[in-house]
Hints:
- This protein is α/β, with parallel strands linked by helices.
- Helices cover 32% and strands 19% of the residues.
- A seven-stranded parallel beta sheet has the order 1-10-9-6-2-3-5, sandwiched between helices. Strands 4-8-7 form a three-stranded antiparallel beta sheet.
- Helix 1 packs across helix 2 (45-53).
Amino acid sequence: MTISISPNPIELGQKAGKTGAELIRKAIETQGFANIILATGTSQFETLKLLLAEKEIDWSKVTVFHLDEYLGLPIKHPASFRKYLVERFFNHVPQLKAYHLIDGENDPEKECTRLSTLIQNHPIDIAFVGIGENGHLAFNDPPADFEIEKPYLVVNLDHACRMQQLGEGWFPDLESVPKKAISMSIHQIMHSKSIICSVPDLRKAQAVKNCLEGKVINLFPASVLQNHPDCQIFLDKESSSLLSSH
Length: 246
């Protein structure tokens, strides 16, 4: 695990995007294709912009999966992660080889099975992820299941996670925030060859400290990233402010 600290969220996102773009190009050069995971949320705005600006990526050789989606939320809802990716990425990128979105309006177990079959046939080269205010990785809230091998699963969203979604302005009130989601599992994320983890903002500082300087424990789900052989963490001045070593 390596840590890079930028002065602000914009530079953080740009650094993460440049690093990810280089990994995508290398995967295509090496094997003729790249399979990637894209995250959503405020932490990914600048990273996605940077990826779209990269002219040297042959997107026709790239297959995209994504991390999580609320159960029962229509794609037209402002908080839909499918809507987020379509509007901020898929509508702007040149022709992709393929992309596989999580349909939270489908039967949950059937959707998990469909996606799990797909991703098992597409070993992931680069995963773009973030860390939640409660330390979650994707929607694996604490205590996260580190053992389950299913690539996708139905999860319950805890109060802190739902409050974060409300606080970021995605929903008008807490009651509107779904209580369940489909999430990529910890096990599947950790199977990625490389992980780019972007974590801006002061509100994430305690989670960053817990996950990067504490023990690897399922009460701080993203702490598992300490065990990954090629994980690069991108922080800004505020999100890194509680780290003892920076």
